[in-house]
Amino acid sequence: SLSDITGFAEITPTAPIAAERHGGRAKCLQRLIRLAMPVPPTVALDFDAVHALSKGDMPDLDAMLAFFGPDPLLSVRPSSEDPDWGGPGAILNIGMNDALHARLTESHGEPAANALYLRFIQSYAVHVARADPDEFEAGGAPTAEALAHALAAYEDETDEPFPQDVRDQLGEVLRSMARAWEGTTARLLREAKGAPADAGLGLVVQKMALGVGNGISGSGVIQFVSGQSGRPEIRGRYMCQAQGRDALTAKDGAGDILYLKQDPRGRSIETVLPEVWSDLMRYGDLARKRLREEMQIEFTVENEELFILDAVRVPRSPRANLRIAVALANDGIISQDEAVLRVPPHSLSELLHSQVDPAGKRDIVGSGIAASPGAATGKIVFTARAAQAMAAQDEPCVLVRRETTPEDIRGMHAAKAVLTERGGVTSHAAVIARGLGVPCVVGASDLTLDLKAGTLTTPDGRVFREGDRITIDGSHGKVIAGSARMLAPALGDNFRTLLAWADAARDIGVRANADTPEDARKAQMFEAEGIGLCRTEHMFFAEDRLLAMREMIFADDAVDRRSILDRIGPMLRRDFVELFGIMKGRPVTIRLFDLPLHEFLPQNREGLRELAEALDLPLSDVTRRAEALTEFNPMLGMRGVRLGLTVPEIYDTQARAIFEAVVEVAREGATVVPEIMIPLVSAKREVEIVKARVDAVAAAVRIERGVDFDYRLGVMVETPRAALRAGEIAPHSAFLSFGTNDLTQMTYGLSRDDAGRFMSQYVAQGVYDEDPFHVLDADGVGELLMLGAERGRRTNPGITLSICGEHGGNPESIAFCRDARFDYVSCSPFRVPVARLAAAHLAI
Ligand code: PEP
Ligand code: MG
């Protein structure tokens, strides 16, 4: 083709221009030309030509200049495949030299000629000749002196006169832009935005429309929606006697700015140039309908004639992006599936919570792991009790702890945000905060917490005390001094509409991890298909119940235990009745107690004394018993089914509470088939023993109440052995749910509560690509998932498979589970919308 010979191609409606070869800008310009918009003559250089250029191989510049005709004024703009990957800045007015300046002074007046030449000298000097930018500051008045100064400075800096030959100018501009793209900084920047290592750059050379000179001339930018909210509204700026994007960057009063549409404050394009205005309206509408996107249009008016120079996707916030996608689909411009694909799943989490406004001022004083998204400001408190006291006075507070334990839950509830010095993404603080929807930063180890002194000290020595105000940005893992400007959450009709479209497309289920009726209401609000994990021990984190749980753990004879279980049973039953009611017949998976004992033992003397009082025992007895229960490695100790087997009455009590709740809601006409899940299984026999007892309790309740009911019993696969032996476990299980928190912990031999201390080092050194507690380790832990699923299916083909660890809400893990043909994923309620959308993206 011609472009193979000359190294460039004219952009015409039919030229073979492709975004993958010429870049997004070139392709977009072709579309504008096809829509018959007045785009000045333009040629495109493809990726190969630009790459060759960087190696010194010039395109046929004579042919290019011949195309543009005598005395051309040109611009060169970058055209990367994805506009987000950036590129060198545009260079305008190539072709200006002394001779043309003289002629333009005649035809367009001296100020215009000066402005055109000055602008070119400034950008050529800085970007092409690499002269000292301080010598060529843009923005001054385009006087004859300024021009003379710039020409002299150029010669001074480069020891050469300013080039007068258009061919030389153009060649050097093209070469320098090609080289800039190959530079290390530019490459790292675009790779950070997802560009491949070999991403190419195209260049677009366009004949200038002069925004300066005769008659009404100027340039501007217009868009038809707000980039913040996505609502329809005309925005932009137009400045008389200006070029490029000057109108956007000019300070108020720096030039003659026209309002776009009629405005009582001054003159507008609409009144001064009504034809230009109506054309702009028409082009805006055309671009939306035919480019199927909200575009920002860059235009120039040359002596009252409109030219369209360029158009880019309107830069937008996540909430604007959502609204725009839904509006385009509602208007029949794109399909519903397309709208779903245009919203990145992760962007939703920004809409569910308040966010720190990235445009506002922030005084960042520390950072850690972004453990629970959203942001909040409050006064520092160092104890759960103080958090509750503050909340009682309606005073927003931030709970700052070394790490959290069940004793802090009430405080976490009361606080607007949580900050811990230790811990990783599956630490207690992180899991609970995500469940509560409270912004949280964990593992902020650069901050020094001195609980005795009541101080929080930053690396540079600033000291914060109780009552000082800070802001936690849980989306980005930042601690900010004082308050920060916030953006409010946006859960509106558009959100619901888009997710309904996502639901229609996806082919894997999404349930919520919900422990309490309050969580279940959130799950319901986010339209989860059921509860995939109810951690029943979490029902006992509430103040009035923690003690009951401790009494149960401490009871050391059957009689005492019976009496406390007789109190716990009805509490559980009430909760289950409420949960079933809220979930309206949707499946509810109830996990039998998994009590890491250390999470439930009192942490201090005061707690021990309270317990001694409640148990009516001497403090020394209680202390001794607490010591006896202390484990060297509680996460590998008497947890889960191990406690269930050693003290079988506990699971009996739970099973009875579940079945009695089923009977109770059955009386009101609702049919519930509860799913009972056994935690931390490592051997088939554990399942057989628990199953026999649960079956016996069910039989007893059926006879006592004279009501029949069904239930499903399943196993949580959290130990490597359970995954490996899934083949012999599956025949006893209606479902297998992979608890990837513990499975990751045990596969790596990495404590989920302590890994935060060195995880960032590990990731920084490339030992792990990512924190495996955050992103499912597809190679190792994933292989256990695949093995377990395959072996389980072989012996029980109808078995239901799911994942319920924290990974369940991550798009990568959802892809993994979908490929492995799992039935559903389960994640904390606030991540349910993200998971629904991510699942739809995979299915479309
Ligand atoms: C798990 O281990 O993945 C799990 C869901 O259980 P928990 O986080 O309660 O240990
Ligand atoms: Mg677990």
Primary descriptors:
844 residues, alpha/beta, Dna Ligase, domain 1, D-amino Acid Aminotransferase, Chain A, domain 1, Glucose Oxidase, domain 1, 4 domains, eight-stranded mixed beta sheet, eight-stranded parallel barrel, binds phosphoenolpyruvate, binds magnesium ion, pyruvate, Pyrv_kinase-like_dom_sf
Write a structural description.
- This protein is of the alpha/beta class.
- The protein folds into four domains: about 1-205, Dna Ligase, domain 1 (2-Layer Sandwich), CATH 3.30.1490; about 220-315, ATP-grasp fold, B domain (D-amino Acid Aminotransferase, Chain A, domain 1, 2-Layer Sandwich); about 355-485, 3-Layer(bba) Sandwich (Glucose Oxidase, domain 1), CATH 3.50.30; about 505-595 and about 640-844, Phosphoenolpyruvate-binding domains (TIM Barrel, Alpha-Beta Barrel), CATH 3.20.20.
- Helices cover about 45% and strands about 15% of the residues.
- The strands form six sheets. An eight-stranded mixed beta sheet has the order 12-22-21-14-15-16-17-13. Strands 24-25-26-27-28-29-30-31 form an eight-stranded parallel barrel, surrounded by six helices. The chain has a five-stranded antiparallel beta sheet with strand order 1-2-5-3-4.
- Helix 16 runs antiparallel to helix 36 (about 830-844) and helix 21 (about 515-525) packs parallel to helix 23.
- It is elongated, with a radius of gyration of 33 Å.
- It starts with a helix and ends with a helix.
- Catalyzes the reversible phosphorylation of pyruvate and phosphate.
- This is Pyruvate, phosphate dikinase.
- It holds the Pfam family PEP-utilizers_C.
